[in-house]
Specification:
Length: 276
């Protein structure tokens, strides 16, 4: 998938460059055709490789703001696939908050611009929502991606910023979880404690990521948690945390297994009546 993302990033750089060398004024609206094309490409790849499904897409509003909070797998391919479904079937873009290292990756500037990915201060995020946009945040971030395991722990720590953003903008929060996301890509436990110490001190993500296995991926979009002016951001964060734990308990077999999730991807083959 990362290869496809880099190809997409290079395509977007060439797309923008074409406009500039021909003397056209490049505006945010110019991204729409390229965004739609990439959404089609990512959606096809998701269905072909992962047998990707989504349940609850109707919970993403067709208009108006909402904060999408999702569990961060080792590689957030499910975000690309949810984004694609939203572009194709809702005709909407989900803006996103990205980790700082993302903005230093070579050739990613056009992709960041096209899909409106932001560093994400509370003020910036609240402003995006107040303008009527959708915004996606993974509270666990890189820490949850690299240091989670097959038991799917929620590693949010004391992060409450997402709740403060939702409360400030007075918008609902939509929880999202993808079954088997930690089996599609994963990190080994060997040396993880040492590597986490380095990460906590430097914020450099040195943990190697493995995978790309054709596991069965299914995204569950939960019902919106409405804005409640009577509770604090801490209480809202706890409410979302508990909802995410409930979604994991309901939709994920624990501990996660690469073998089982690949079998789930191709189990329809075992149901066919193949003549001898």
């Amino acid at each position: 998938m990362m290869g496809l993302v880099y190809i997409s990033a290079l395509y977007l750089k060439a797309y923008r460059y074409y406009y500039k060398i021909n003397g056209y004024t490049f505006t945010p609206e110019c991204w729409k055709p390229a965004r739609y094309l990439l959404a089609c490409l990512w959606d096809f790849q998701a269905r072909f490789w992962y047998g990707y499904e989504i349940q609850g897409l109707e919970n993403i509003p067709s208009e108006g703001p909402a904060l999408v909070v999702f569990y961060h797998g080792s590689m957030p391919v499910d975000w690309y696939y949810l984004l694609s479904k939203t572009v194709l079937y809702k005709k909407r873009l989900i803006c996103a908050v990205g980790d700082r290292f993302l903005f230093h990756l070579p050739a990613f500037d056009a992709l960041i611009d096209c899909f409106q990915i932001y560093p994400g201060t509370i003020e910036t995020c609240a402003d995006i929502l107040k303008k009527g946009n959708l915004l996606a945040i993974a509270p666990g971030g890189v820490r949850e991606a690299l240091f989670g395991d097959e038991m799917y722990p929620i590693i949010w720590g004391t992060r409450k910023g997402f709740a403060k953003v939702a409360m400030e903008a007075k918008v609902p929060i939509i929880p999202v979880f993808t079954e088997n996301i930690r089996e599609a890509f994963f990190t080994h436990s060997f040396g993880k404690k040492w590597l986490r110490t380095i990460y906590e001190r430097t914020r450099i993500p040195l943990v190697p990521i493995y995978g790309g296995f054709p596991t069965k991926l299914k995204t569950f979009v939960g019902e919106p948690i409405p804005y409640d002016p009577t509770i604090t951001p801490d209480e809202m964060a706890t409410r979302v945390n508990e909802k995410m734990k409930d979604m994991i308990k309901t939709h994920q077999k624990l501990p996660g297994s690469v073998t089982r999730s690949v079998f789930e991807r191709f189990q329809y083959l075992f149901k066919l009546n193949i003549p001898k």
